[in-house]
């Protein structure tokens, strides 16, 4: 049997021995106390309740001091939590106290959502502690533990709603108990407790395992929820000054157990059960949080056949699982990539084919247009060459006609000269002359010109006829 197994089972194989004289380990509790006193203590209280219900006043009354109190309005858009830490000292015991107050709790239309920021806050504190615990190099001895040890849930005497917050030690209190009559208060307490039971809300039960406090705790469990009155005002009652609320009809003494349960709350919360609240937070609520978190991360104490597995084994198994999963994902991604590439390739090929066919169409169109243009060009060339020919012929003709014109002009002059003769002599063929513009013109022009060569009439008439044939009028 391994030595660790022996250590775990102290009753088996362990022999009780009596000591012959003083050894000294009976001072262990003192050592522990001294060490604890040296280190100091820390305690964190969360006060849940609507604005103005008396949270700050009760804290001031409980710890007999004036904490910083921030007035908050009823118009907060959402619930916030405000934490303030103070260093307190009583005798030689130092206490690092954190008071967390809800701001704007229950002031919104949707009351259900008021709880979420509270739950988140509680979880965040557990998470910070877990992170510190999981560090390789951790310093828990000087770590500021902000986990909530006690949650005072303030219930208004005029209606209430308490939701399950299984994450912390809840101590329900009826605030401003001076505003409710004694008989109403009694009924109200019974009603609240039965509602808590029927709704399955777990509240903190003062522990009964320590017999020194079991009796008082049993009695106190029967007084829950505590009906409290808060006040820091000192009023003279008899021959001493007491904390009280003074009214025209009388004085409500905070520390008078006939008036309210303030003393019970202080006794239970601070004097008797503070250490148990701290312990419960660590061993019950934090342990639960830690277990769930580690299980979420895949850590387990036992394997498939209920065999114990070490953290190292779980880590290795988890790592292997992760690597397999990673490989699977990688294969999937690769396959997906190949598939995508194939799809893209086929898309590109389709596009290429389409482009090619479009190109062929355009090429065909272009060839047709080119052929048509060439045909046109050929026709134009033909036209041009025939035009050039005609032009050359025309130029030739022009040149010829220019040469001829010189002679024609000369002839025409003669002819014109002769026309004088005709005009005079051939008056009769005026019809003939009218048929020819120029002759008619000449006729009109020259009719008035006197003509003297009448003796040559016949000869000139023949000449005129010849001229008329050779140079027809234009
Ligand atoms: N009647 C009555 N009034 C109280 C009591 N405790 C506080 N108050 C008053 O209620 C008001 C709001 O108190 P406060 O502690 O600031 O409430 P908080 O917003 O919850 O912190 C103040 O005017 C207090 O004097 C109480 O036990 N009884
Ligand atoms: Mg306040």
UniProtKB/TrEMBL annotation:
User: Which SUPFAM superfamilies would you find in this protein's record?
Assistant: P-loop containing nucleoside triphosphate hydrolases
Enumerate the Pfam families for this protein.
Septin
Q: Which domain of life is it from?
A: Eukaryota
- What GO MF terms are annotated? GTP binding
InterPro entries tied to this protein: G_SEPTIN_dom, P-loop_NTPase, Septin
User: What are the record keywords, sorted?
Assistant: Coiled coil, GTP-binding, Nucleotide-binding
Q: What is this protein called?
A: Septin
Source species: Collichthys lucidus
The uppermost taxa in this organism's lineage are: Eukaryota, Metazoa, Chordata, Craniata, Vertebrata
